[in-house]
Amino acid sequence: MLELVTETTFGEIAALLALAAVVGFIGLAARQPLIVSFIAVGLLAGPSVLGLVQSAEQIELLSELGIALLLFLVGIKLDVKLIRSLGSVSLLTGLGQVAFTSIFGFLIGLMLGLDQVTSLYVAVALTFSSTIIIVKLLSDKREIDTLHGQIALGFLIVQDLVVVLAMIVLSTIGIGASDDGPGIPFVLISGLVMVGTVFVFIRFLADPLTSRLARAPELLMIFAIALAAMFAAVGDFVGLGKEVGGLMAGVALASTPFRETISARLAPLRDFLLLFFFLALGSSLDLSTLGSNVTAAIVFSIFVLVGNPLIVLIIMGTLGYRKRTSMLAGLTVAQISEFSLIFVAMGVTLGQVSPDALGLVTMVGIVTIAASTYMITYSHRLYDWLEPVLGVFERKGTPREPRDAAVISGAKYDVLVFGLGRFGSAIGRRLKEKGISALGVDYSPDAVHKWRSLGLEAEFGDMTDPEIIAELPIASAKWIISTVPIQVQGLTQEDSRRALIQLAGLAGFEGQIAVVSHNEEETRGLASAGADVVLEPFELAAERAVENVHLQGTESGSRSLPPKAY
């Protein structure tokens, strides 16, 4: 049957896509990111299992285009303005994690019997964390705007910069070790010419050209893909490699106002083409030889899963962040990324490391990505288990956490509002108009800043953190209002509200609690949990809307009445 399917390239590709869909569905059920499913598809389709991959040249071509596009999308996020505004914590944490992982990873490689070059490649590969996976998981948990989420995104940018430098350096080393390739002076001059071309393009052409192309969005996407492919081809021709060329193409468009649009529209194409990278990877691996790397893979996996979060905990604790913030940020780097595989694959192409090294890093990738997905998903439960032993990583006073001077000085408030989004902000403004003192609390630094810009007092904190609740002036408040949306900090909405009700009682709160609900079942459950008032924003809004329309429709001359806002 398989022979009939793979008689033509089209049939082969169709079979591979069908296999990817099935394995992807299983991975989705297991709450695993697509990259794990893609690696599994590559191994299953390889010669050691199903042997579906026959059109190696065509798949390799799509694989190379996928790599160029992936690096292009990394480069397009490396905006110079963003790099300039990178916080010291992101810079220090990112560089510290990279230095720690690469140095100790290199030493572990030598202890396991790997040669120096292979140990270096593996160590550097272990420093990269998957931006795609981390952003996806943090978005699903609504933690992108949290303090630890913003710090994590910051040191991911630092890692991306390390990717650029490492690829350029090792490409140059590979050229120097090759007798038949272009010489190092030629490559360096070509690299400077490419950088100069990118600078001129950014300075004079990027904005006006993309603005004109944006009138036809499809043409803008074609131009972006063409630019990535062209730079990748030039980079490959001069000896820098397709990866570096793709990165430079992305940087060329990073300062344009359309970079987010380009990135969002090309992301599905990137994911599709990356499938072929893993198919090419799987077809080149011999599973029978992976058994010799099991011990090394286990050691490196434990090192990444434990060592990377640990160094982030140490650095952030030294800088003055709370142990909770430090651990939640540290867990995001407990895996390697697709860049790790591409990086080592580049070393194989340059002839600097053997395919066994790629097999080793692939095994580490499967283990760490699969395990860290659950670690990040259940990060708050993991913190609760480990919290008693994490005090050593926290400085007294946590000076770097955003704290409100009024709260620290012991000010009292009539109402505490948790959740400073649109609904919470509207409640805060109306309380202020009525002369009622209110303190807003949110885990997003941006939300806290916006509240303060409205002339309202706000405090940074997580409503499910017992330490935060204990520090707030909760005992003297008359009301607690929670407007927290559907999901917060990885918990379901009802879980977070029940946690607030319980923690408030433990902190000595004797007033009344109002929480948000979106259906009758939630309302009954929250009432039984101890909520005094359950707000249903959609029902309230619908009721006022109908009332407003009814009144305006029955009054004489209602058509001339000005619109009212509620």
Give structural notes.
- With 566 residues, the protein is mainly alpha-helical.
- 67% of the residues lie in helices and 5% in strands.
- It has helices at 2-5, 9-29, 34-45, 56-75, 80-84, 88-111, 116-125, 131-140, 147-177, 184-213, 217-238, 242-253, 259-284, 294-319, 323-330, 338-349, 355-377, 379-386, 405-408, 422-433, 445-453, 466-471, 493-506, 520-529, 537-554, and strands at 415-418, 438-442, 457-460, 479-482, 487-488, 491-492, 512-516, 533-535.
- Helix 20 (422-433) links the parallel strand 1 (415-418) and strand 2 (438-442).
- The helix-and-strand class reads mainly alpha
The overall average pLDDT, rounded, is 80
Uncertain residue segments: 405-409, 487-494, 556-566
Distance between the termini: 66 Å
Question: How many strands, what sense, and barrel or not for the largest sheet?
Answer: 6 strands, parallel
Radius of gyration: 27 Å
Q: Roughly what fraction of the amino acids lie in strands?
A: 5-15%
Helix content: 55-70%
The total beta strand count reads 8
Sequence of strands across the biggest β-sheet = 3-2-1-4-7-8
What oligomeric assembly is this protein in?
A: single chain
How many helical elements? 25
Q: Give the overall form.
A: globular
Summarize the structure.
By secondary structure, the protein is mostly helical.
How is the secondary structure organized here?
Layout: H1 2-5, H2 9-29, H3 34-45, H4 56-75, H5 80-84, H6 88-111, H7 116-125, H8 131-140, H9 147-177, H10 184-213, H11 217-238, H12 242-253, H13 259-284, H14 294-319, H15 323-330, H16 338-349, H17 355-377, H18 379-386, H19 405-408, E1 415-418, H20 422-433, E2 438-442, H21 445-453, E3 457-460, H22 466-471, E4 479-482, E5 487-488, E6 491-492, H23 493-506, E7 512-516, H24 520-529, E8 533-535, H25 537-554
Parallel strand pairs: 1-2, 1-4, 2-3, 4-7, 7-8
Antiparallel strand pairs: 5-6
Helix pairs in contact: 2-3, 3-13, 4-11, 4-12, 4-13, 6-7, 6-9, 6-14, 7-16, 8-17, 9-15, 9-16, 10-11, 10-12, 11-12, 14-15, 14-17, 16-17, 23-24
